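Journal club prep, notes for RB
We'll compare a predicted complex against what the paper describes. Inputs for the GBH case:
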Amino acid sequence: MRLTILFNFCFVLLLSVNNGELINKKFPEDFFFGVATAAYQIEGGWDADGKGESVWDRWVHTRPYMVLNQDNGDVACDSYHKYLEDVEMLKHLGANHYRFSLSWSRILPTGYVNQVNQPGVDYYKNLISALKENGIEPYVTLYHWDLPQPLQDIGGWTNPLLVDYFADYARLVFSLFGDEVKNWMTFNEPKQPCMNGYAYAIIPPGYVTNGIGNYWCAHTIIKAHAKAYHIYDEEFRATQNGRVSIVIDSVWYEPASDSDQDKEAAERKIQFDYGWYANAIYHPDGNYPQVMIDRIAERSKKEGFSKSRLPEFTPEEIEYIKGTFDFLCLNTYTTNLVQWTEDAEIGFPSWEADASVVAYQDASWNSSASFWLKVVPWGIRKLLNWVDQNYDHPEIFITENGFSDTSELDDQDRINYHAEYLSNILQAMLEDGVNVTGYTAWSLLDNFEWTMGYSQKFGFYQVDFDSPNRTRTIKKSANYFKKIIETKCLVDTCED
Ligand code: GBH
């Protein structure tokens, strides 16, 4: 009797998830499980071996108070020097793929293509070879927010010239790494730099241009993505046979009540948030969502502008941008509730006023260490269904999903998060017919969490940021994730 209790107790500890709520079916054998990072958040070596200055370097060096505890990414996890240790960790996990980003200014110190930094190229060549030797598929993002400073000095993403400069960079990296890299993502979460950088001024370039600059930022990025896609199509696809996409993030927006008004508001919000970037690329008709076009045009007119603050795509551009993805890459972490409200008064233009809805989180939802990240596992299933239905049943690859704490090796809450989110993903696949082919946990290791510095930890591995060695230590969640990758099963035993 005693033994049984003890056994059961250990059993529960080992399994370490509330099995009752988890689906006991298996993920398909060819499902991809991996982890993600981004260059500025892990590499360090900010000026090593000829690397140029990025907007993040400039930001943390000139306005250190803009990051919690004045942390910066000068050294970060020192992955520029310790990437082979990272590969060892990936091997331990049994990761099928590793999603990382290229630092544009490590490869092109000025941002322009006239000057290539060979040590930077070699760094990525070595990383990619080490991954391939170990059977880990590289999933490479070209832009995870670290714009070369010289391109900011000509206006950054509000300058349409960046379409061509990004295209030059894309062509170069396809030619350099495309024999090995078969999965490309042009941009990571463009909404984040466009909103936080061009509207809220909490990250570089620190502009307060809400309602105008953020719309131009998005406009340039969407066109730059499309151009890079076409370059791949025309110059590389035939010989390299890879695929290209863009990573767009969304939270799930759940109507706060059953009322038609709240439902309409929730739909409007996801169109203003996700559809803003996604519609032109993923929707069979292309272009911005009609609700954005109409509302912003109407408000701009009332505000006294001569035309809409939302830039227009020409009919040729709509055709050119539409369908520029080979699979759909989605980042998602959490859910918001949405309530209908009266339209904001005409006055100060902003994206929020243009949308005019109330979004909030339920105080009863479990928290992470990040104020915005509440644990709402059912939200991911609803979001997957929304994407499936709105964009014609695409192949969806989850490129980020994860949970923050404040550094625990016994990170049970992270285990529960991934288990419960994965369970809902599997239900979306098996019960709703959504075509999900991969899951990428954020993150391999604790890293520089932008405005929050090193205070919020997302890793399967802990990093000691006080030690010059940046010592990595495995967390309990790493072994849980390893087991999922091995067995394709979230619980102790799955039905076959
Ligand atoms: C992802 O963004 C990023 O791709 C990744 O780099 C990041 O580390 C990870 O999530 C975890 O955050 O504190 O007001 O600045 C997810 C969306 C956008 C959510 C920025 C947090 C910060 C809000 N994130 N947001 S604020």
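Talking point for the session: The longest strand covers residues 137-143.
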